[in-house]
Design brief:
Number of strands: 15
Order of helices and strands: EHEHHEEHEHEEHEHHHHEHEEEEEE
Shape: globular
């Protein structure tokens, strides 16, 4: 690193990717600047209230006591960092079109404050060509040539929120530079805190790698969901089949069906690829069908709930339905794109009184109205409970007292009142 820079690395975006990344970099010995436009987010981090894994909470405490770790909303300080990593959200809108405003804004800010000698790495999942479009091209327009004056690369993030099976330091990183020299500079930076850096020839190859990773998961989740429907039709417990297939040590990877897919990756990332392909008049029928399957899954939960209650001569109208868990996955305080929101809205639209219990989520919005978590589920008087998110610390003993449970997680033990989706 050049000694003229006050910081070794600046991380733009202190969210679910940027914050853990900045903490891992600091643990590796880098002087780190965390940058976020939201002062409220920065205050949450300073007060140790950020949603982090237990190990990262310890890292945050150590980082906040370190004078070589700083948090700021002042983007002019980016010029004082030898390297800048961009880690901001890349969602899709209600029409499944990439919402690029946040990413474009972050890249404009980084380019505006870029100085000679810096390394700029984009990590946010996006369309193929983004690194050149949003960083390399604008830098050239400023008179900074990538590979000579500055160094530009793409290295996709590989963080699994709420799961601590692999720390950042255990997961290899893929990196591709805009030029060969750019790739080498990025490899050197990342190689100090991860066990392996896999270099690909171009930034575009690295961008496509991330799209393949999450599209692979989407397609296989859609297949698992489809098999659950097939097995239900044929009267076969789907988990018996999946568990049996998973005993094969090659050629099979275990995916489990569920109520749908939430979060910031699988429901969004493949649409960046599909959107780009539409512009090139190219179709991807396997991916398109998988994303349609995923999008339809919450509605299938509502339909299944109606059938269960109709079998008890009630239907949905006038019933009380409680969701157990609304976070998009276990052990995260996050409801972005959670299937639970669509399920609750669908149940309510058909006349059910809805509620939810979730130890991590205090309040949500359903059909435009606020809905607060129920502290004691046994007081709700549920006609049906839908098991949606099985948090590790979720006490579910009360499920034995309700009339019927629809298990969309396929994790509950067999019981007389439990039906799998």
């Amino acid at each position: 690193m050049q000694s003229t820079f006050q910081f070794d690395v600046a991380v733009v975006g202190m969210g679910y990717v940027g914050l853990p990344t900045s903490l891992a970099l600091r643990e590796a010995g880098y002087r780190v600047l965390g940058v976020d436009a939201s002062e409220q987010r920065l205050q949450t981090i300073r007060e140790l209230r950020a949603d982090l894994l237990a190990g990262d909470r310890g890292r945050l405490s150590r980082a906040l006591a370190d004078p070589d770790f700083a948090l700021t909303s002042d983007s002019t300080l980016l010029a004082q960092a030898s390297a800048v990593i961009i880690a901001v959200p890349t969602p899709v809108d209600e029409h499944l079109v990439p919402e690029l405003n946040i990413l474009r804004g972050a890249c404009r800010t980084v380019v505006e404050h870029a100085v000679a000698g810096q390394l700029l790495i984009l990590t946010s999942t996006t369309y193929v060509g983004s690194t050149r479009d949003m960083l390399a091209g604008p830098l050239r327009a400023r008179g900074l040539e990538p590979g000579t004056d500055v160094y530009v690369a793409f290295s996709p993030e590989r963080i699994n929120p709420g799961v601590d099976d692999f720390s950042q330091e255990e997961v290899p990183r893929v990196v591709g530079g805009v030029t060969e020299a750019c790739g080498h500079r990025a490899e050197a930076l990342l190689g100090k805190y991860v066990p392996k850096v896999h270099a690909v020839p171009t930034a575009e190859a690295a961008e496509m790698t991330k799209l393949l990773e999450n599209t692979f998961r989407a397609v296989n989740i859609a297949l698992a969901n489809e098999f659950s429907t097939i097995c239900t039709t044929l009267g076969i417990p789907v988990m018996d089949v999946i568990d049996a297939a998973a005993t094969k040590p090659f050629g099979f990877m275990r995916f489990v069906p569920g109520p749908g897919v939430g979060g910031h990756c699988i429901p969004c990332d493949p649409h960046y690829l599909l959107w780009q392909l539409r512009g090139n008049r190219v179709t991807a029928p396997v991916i398109e069908q998988a994303m349609q399957n995923i999008a339809a899954r919450p509605r299938q939960v509502v339909d299944r709930a109606r059938k269960i209650l109709s079998d008890k001569f009630r239907g949905l109208a006038g019933t009380r339905v409680l969701l157990a868990g609304v976070a998009y996955k276990p052990d995260v305080e996050d409801v972005r794109e959670s299937p639970a929101l669509e399920i609750l809205a669908g149940l309510e639209a058909e006349g059910a009184t809805v509620g939810y219990v979730d130890p991590l989520i205090g309040g949500i919005r359903v059909n435009g109205a606020s809905l607060e978590a129920i502290s004691d589920p046994e007081t709700f008087g549920a006609d049906l409970v839908i098991m949606h998110t099985a948090h590790t610390e979720f006490n579910l003993d009360w499920l034995s007292t309700v009339p019927v449970v629809l298990d969309t997680t396929y994790r509950l033990p067999a019981a007389a009142n439990t039906i799998q989706l």
